[in-house]
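Supplementary Methods, section 5.1.

A reviewer requested that the exact input to the structure prediction be made available. We therefore reproduce it here, unchanged from the version used in the analyses.
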Amino acid sequence: MADFFLQALSLVSSPSVLLLILIGVLFGIIGGSIPGFTVTMAILVVFPFTFAMDPVSGVALMVGVFVGGYSGGIVSGVMLGIPGTPSSITTVYDGYPMAQRGEPGRALGIGVAASFIGTLISVAVLVYFGPLIAHFSMQFRPWEITALILFALTLVAGLSQGALLKGLLAAALGLLITTVGYDRNSNLRFDFGFPFLDAGFEMLPVMIGIFAFSQLMGNLEDLRDESRVAGQKVDTNVSIPYRRIAQDMAGQKVNTLRSSLIGSLVGALPGTGGTVANFVSYDQAKKFSRHPERFGTGIPDGIVASEASNSAVAGGAFVPTLALGIPGDLPMAIMMGVLILHGITPGPLMFEQNPVLVGAIYASLLIGAVIMVLCQLFLVRWFAKISLIPQQILVPVVLMLCAIGSYALNNNLFDVWVLFGFGVVGYLLWKARVPLTPLILGVVLGNNLERQLFRALELDSSWLTFLTRPLSALFLALALASVIFSLYQNRKIERHRREAAASHDA
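The structure derived from this sequence is encoded token-by-token as follows.
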């Protein structure tokens, strides 16, 4: 392992790759700093620029955006009281009150330090558990992989916050989108008589359209936070009290470690990501605290719990992506698209066939974490000013970049129309409160699911084989259990809502 890691480190340490990581971290922080832009949006905008790069350079750029994006949300959360990304919601609970007391630099410094440590711990989790899971999954055959993908899709749909049926329908729609065009046996499907559908839909325009377009339209539709920012004066002249931050972090060792591990483990679960890790970690920090009543008043404990956990998601989310070929969250689905674009298939064999690239991901995460700390500490006042960019300016610029990226994929105007077509679909689904994450993962995993299912049936035409093989039966049972558990939780939530409404009426 040491040999390929040193080789990867030499590649990543080249001036050109280091510059790409720096650019990625800066863009990620900027994207995370702007309310409503999100880490996923930043990654989608950068994705097209990796087309002409070699795999190490492309992955290094994306890892930089990934690391910077998860830490960038703290800026607007502390300065404006508006989370820059969904994964920094709980940062606002204590970061904004601390800033209101006249200590914005302290709040930002604590958050940046916690993000740095969280990223380092998550890399350790990735380095240790990634190869172990990959080694275990080497015994997976088509039946096990098919069942695992189904389990991942049901798990994601089950985490759709009370909308299980909508989540499952969204996942099914994502799978259906991948069936347009020729199948693996050269049979033409769902072209509706249009020659331009013969090749199916490219993954990138579909993902950008479904997520980015709908998100941007939603931002324009709801500008209440914008008016709130316009009505308040924000002092962006921030200084970082380094000694005070060192003292604060010295008393947060257990909290930092616990929150980082929670973020890593939650990030490794398909479809969860930084938002879930954020709330779970904050909740656990409050439960283990000797003074839980002080949470939400501006204490370091809450900031550390939030920022360490959402940054630790970075390494954790890479574990299932690299070891199993199952994206840990939406940004990881796009990262998986980068690898596929360069002819690299994530999964158990990646650790054997592309060990240098795996090592490059490790090294990029470590170097990205260091660059993130330096950028945040020295450029924080500029990031604070960037967070004030109004949505009316931001949305057209981002849409233009998305359209250019989609066109650059094949120099084909059809891909731009695909982007806007699926953008309308995504916006309508968003308006109907249909979760988009299961749909995106269905698009990403659809081709692999079809390939593995057909391969399994070619080897053995009996469907009972899925139940007679222990691992595939286990994954199918887990998929069924996740659906049943989600139904139980949804009914429980609905019952509590009815009881609360009845007591309110009384």
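The two ends are 66 Å apart (CA to CA). These observations are discussed further in the main text.
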